[in-house]
């Protein structure tokens, strides 16, 4: 499987993402600049965390109009697997590939810690390898991870089983404890926690690895 | 030439944590009469546009980039500028 790791000005988790899917997962990957205009030849797209365009205006608002975005939207609309983590999640909501928006944390703190999560749906292209294990811990590191959507959207997310991860101890004020959601088709996942920072025992946690294994298994189907 | 002054705030239904934080600071300063604080963004855009299209252009700019309509709301004032 060949992953594209998108690099925006201000991305800072791109190398971690690359390392997770190459050295730890054993697949191939390429860092793809925000100035590229095609994703031909890739099986999955990873939008990493960071502060694209300095978070100016709103998180993800300016990245959403960078040259690579039409290719990402086309890739997603054709059913390709797209994962956005942290700032990547914010970019996906700004681009309209995922519903809702990310607001400032309720407490105004930048929160950097491990968060216990519940996997609400283990039947997705991103969570199938978790099997029956529905409680994991992943690092979170964000100032604007407070997920918001209106009540009608929340009802749709629930009805379509699009809520994939929830916080067990809601740190930021997110609606319905939401930590990660998919689009209706299930091929685009956005999440605030960082699976790429939890892929080896040397760092004390491998709970993120099955997410990437799930994506690889889906592509090989 | 026109100048558009654009004010963006969270929708009233959305908690504004910065506004709340400023309100508690004002209360600590004994301004107990302050019952609500809203913090938003202010933009000034100068546009070379004609009278027929300037308003629709400003609206499109707000909807496409300046405002996230999922959680924010906006209002604007448009004034004609004297050509220097």
Any overview of this molecule?
The complex is a heterodimer of chains A (221) and B (84). Chain A has 221 residues and is an alpha/beta fold. Chain A has a single domain, classed as Class I glutamine amidotransferase (GATase) domain (Rossmann fold, 3-Layer(aba) Sandwich). Helices cover 22% and strands 26% of the residues of chain A. Chain A has five helices and eleven strands. Chain A has helices at 14-24, 69-77, 87-94, 151-159, 209-220, and strands at 2-7, 28-33, 44-47, 81-85, 101-103, 111-119, 135-142, 146-148, 163-167, 178-182, 188-191. In chain A, the strands form two sheets. Chain A has a nine-stranded mixed sheet, with helices on both faces. In chain A, strands 5-8 form a two-stranded antiparallel sheet. In chain A, α2 links the parallel β3 and β4 (81-85). The longest helix of chain A is centred in the last third of the chain and has 12 residues, at 209-220. The radius of gyration of chain A is 16 Å and the shape is globular. Chain B is α+β, with helices and mostly antiparallel strands and 84 residues long. Chain B has a single domain, classed as 2-Layer Sandwich (Mth169, Chain: A). Chain B is 30% helix and 30% strand. Chain B contains two helices and three strands. Chain B has helices at 17-28, 54-66; strands at 2-10, 41-47, 72-80. In chain B, strands 2-1-3 form a three-stranded antiparallel sheet, with helices on one face. The radius of gyration of chain B is 17 Å and the shape is elongated. The N and C termini of chain B lie close together (10 Å). The mean pLDDT of chain B is 94.
């Amino acid at each position: 499987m060949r992953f594209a790791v998108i690099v925006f000005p201000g991305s800072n988790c791109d190398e971690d993402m690359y390392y997770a899917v190459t050295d730890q997962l054993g697949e191939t990957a390429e860092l793809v600049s925000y100035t590229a205009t095609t994703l031909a030849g890739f099986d999955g797209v990873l939008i990493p965390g960071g502060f694209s365009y300095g978070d100016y205006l709103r998180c993800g608002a300016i990245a959403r109009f960078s040259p690579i975005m039409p290719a990402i939207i086309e890739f997603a609309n054709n059913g390709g697997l797209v994962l956005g983590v942290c700032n990547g999640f914010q970019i996906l909501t700004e681009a309209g590939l995922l519903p809702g928006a990310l607001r400032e944390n309720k407490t105004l703190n930048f929160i950097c810690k491990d968060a216990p999560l519940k996997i609400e749906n283990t039947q997705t292209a991103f969570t199938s390898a978790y099997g029956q294990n529905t409680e994991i811990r992943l690092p979170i590191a964000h100032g604007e991870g407070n997920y918001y959507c209106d009540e009608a959207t929340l009802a749709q997310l629930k009805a379509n089983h699009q809520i994939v991860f929830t916080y067990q101890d809601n740190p930021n004020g997110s609606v319905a404890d939401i930590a990660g959601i998919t689009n209706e088709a299930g091929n685009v996942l956005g999440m605030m926690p960082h699976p790429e920072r939890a892929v080896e025992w040397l760092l004390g946690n491998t709970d993120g690895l099955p997410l990437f294994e799930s994506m690889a298994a889906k592509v090989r189907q | 030439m026109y100048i558009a002054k654009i004010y963006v705030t969270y929708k009233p239904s959305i908690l504004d944590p910065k506004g709340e934080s400023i309100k508690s600071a004002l209360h600590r300063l004994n301004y107990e009469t302050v019952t609500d604080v809203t913090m938003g963004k202010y933009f000034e855009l100068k546009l070379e546009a004609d009278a027929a299209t300037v308003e629709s252009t400003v609206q499109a700019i707000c909807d496409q980039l300046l405002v996230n309509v999922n959680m924010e709301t906006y209002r604007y004032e448009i004034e004609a500028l004297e050509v220097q």
